Amino acid sequence: MNKEKEFINIINKILNKDLKKDFVVGIGDDAAILTSNGNNKMVICSDTIVEDIHFKLDYFSFEDIGWKSIAINSSDLAAMGAVPNYFTVSIGLPSHINKNNFEQLIIGMKKCCDSYGGFIVGGDIVKSDKLFISISAVGSLHQKKFLTRDSAKPGDKVAVTGNLGDSLGGLNLLLDNKKGGRLINSHLKPQPKIIESKKLIESGVKCCMDISDGLHNDLLNLCESSKVSIEINIEDLPVSKELKSEFSDRFIDIAINGGEDYELLFTFDESKIKLPFNYFVIGSVVNKNENNVLYKNKGKIIKPKLNTWSHFEQN
Length: 315
Prior knowledge:
The chain is an alpha+beta fold. It has helices spanning 3-15, 62-80, 99-116, 166-175, 182-188, 194-203, 215-226, 241-246, 251-257; strands spanning 23-25, 32-35, 41-50, 82-93, 119-127, 132-141, 157-160, 207-210, 228-233, 264-268, 280-288, 293-297, 300-302. The chain has 2 domains: 3-141, CATH 3.30.1330.10; 157-305, PurM-like C-terminal domain (Phosphoribosyl-aminoimidazole Synthetase, Chain A, domain 2). A 7-stranded mixed β-sheet has the order 8-10-7-11-9-12-13. Strands 1-2-3-6-4-5 form a 6-stranded mixed β-sheet, covered by helices on one side.
């Protein structure tokens, strides 16, 4: 178990016992869902991005940093079947940040809000050694039903809403001093899947999460929450032609390990649910209570190279 999960388990152990009946979903999912004013359900999440951990000023514009800070919170809401309503924003500013830098940061936030919903209603500004942005987001469900990561069942298909690995591919290109192109844009300006989330809910899907920590990590998270095992067919992983072209010898490894794709990962009964948008079935939920991810290539078990992300295991 990595250190981040150990810390989350401590939080669960100490705090989850205090949750009252007005909490529908508490600690451990992409966001919390609570009941307020009768049947209306609020969805609340928070996320933080830190300079040199989640972005570098060498290749991120301040506008892109602002966009990303809102987008990743909106993606967490989408993973629950919610739409953004309000954000509070706390910003840590180093002394070298000037008025123009700050203005571009806020413009990026506003552009993302204008594109995907929600308004910034408050926050805080502090001095910091490095730039960081910490956001709390409040959303509302598309309808009374919602999505969670603990409702996968054996027999379900495992699917994703789009290509995997583009963000990590873009990061690798940026680190190689390359500019422009779709892969790089995927890393700099993630696109939360608000519309797809709504269609999942309307179609009867119940199990979902967003892919922020990489496909493998998030498959493990889904298995742990739902107490299931999953088989993945790597020949079915959706990989863009750009990723294949730029990384012809390792695009599968990038697709499996790459974080920050912000596609939706979901499971569903394909015999009962028909989805009105393009999606990609990549595997199946196979067993209860085994919490394991197995990879196959045309029916043969393989062991892909795993180099997954962890906040507390990076140099």
